[in-house]
Predict the structure.
Amino acid sequence: MRAERHSTLSQIVHEVVNLTPVFDIHTHLFDPAFGPLVSWGIDELLTYHYLIAESFRTVSDTPDFFWKLDQKGQADWIWKQLFTERSPISEACRGVITSLHLLGINPRQRDLSSIRKHFASWTAETFTDRVLQVAKVRKVCMTNLPFDDQERPYWERGFQRHPAFVAALRLDPLLLEWDRTAPQLYSWGYDVRADLSGKTMDEVRRFLADWTLKMDSQYCMASLPPDWRFPENSATNRLLQEAVLPFGREYNQAFAMMIGVRRGVNPALRMAGDSLAPADVPSVEALCSAYPQNKFLCTMLARENQHALCVAARKFSNLHIFGCWWFLNNPSLIEESMRMRIELLGLGVTPQHSDCRVMDQLGYKWNHSRPILAKVLAEKYGDLEDAGWHPSRPEIEKDVHALLGGELERFIGR
Ligand code: HDL
Ligand code: ZN
């Protein structure tokens, strides 16, 4: 009887998780209006920096020749090293296979040139809509950088926006590279000083307001190093406390912190050369405590930080944690963190985001995460059922919508 009840419940949970459209709250994807900035297709997929790192491990010395190849040549080499000479069993490799399969391209053909031909039938626009449909993603949050010379002109010219793409204002250059960024802001007409004196903080707030309105930004964000501490006397924290957070209270903009990256531990890998280190959860707690009127999102890169970050979110209702970020986005760690977060935070968490850089990945990142969420939820609803609480399908649908981006929309008030 109990086993039968559970299997029916599990079937409902898997169906609901598979069918519920997702708000993907952090990606590096672009609205198709950004034209050449949109990354899609098999060569982009194969030269994703996760696969560059993995392909470099198949040879004993750093293959400097790789960087002299054009992208097609790089993709050919990666395909040979990771897909032809050995089974593509890592999560990032499996992702390529799933992406192709979801697009109706048979990876078994193993012939890269015939796979390339499949992509010729799409444009960035038609491909984007196809992938959104396959991945069942209703909204994609981009990572938008006014400081990027390629991206900025699109915002300054203005463009017809794709209904599924929303923006997030990325602040790393402002918060982490003030010496370089101050002159750029000054050249754009913001009266800022390298030593943060004068009208600097007011002018930074004006810059943030101008770009938030221009982008209709959902939240603002920064990736912080593992040694970031609060409180601590630093340009980063002064800009945060005297500009970003007052701006956030005035414009209802949450501040998202992605903490734990150690940049360039192996420069020979270029973008693939970053690593991680445990970060300081008490600093996040101190920030949330000092600024109860601000809303904070947070994800950390080290597995060691995940439990304490959950507890921090239990202590501060202005803290919403999210995602299995980057090196945590692997089935074994996704399941571990999903189970822990639902046990500690119920539905007040966004357990996953994709962090996609290549449009094709949207299918695989969600195709790989949904079954794990369904497995954990089926177990948790089964436990509830055993305790005498019988969740209805509409209740399960409401809960799953919350976990797949709905709760974040409530939290940020957008
Ligand atoms: O800083 C970030 O937003 C990270 O997600 C980096 O972009 C990282 O390179 C990445 O792509 N992770 O998945
Ligand atoms: Zn990212």
Summary: The beta strands are 22-24, 137-141, 165-170, 217-224, 254-259, 261-262, 275-276, 296-300, 319-321. The pocket of D-arabinohydroxamic acid (ligand 1) is lined by residues 28, 143, 223, 258, 326, 355, 357 (CB under 6 Å).
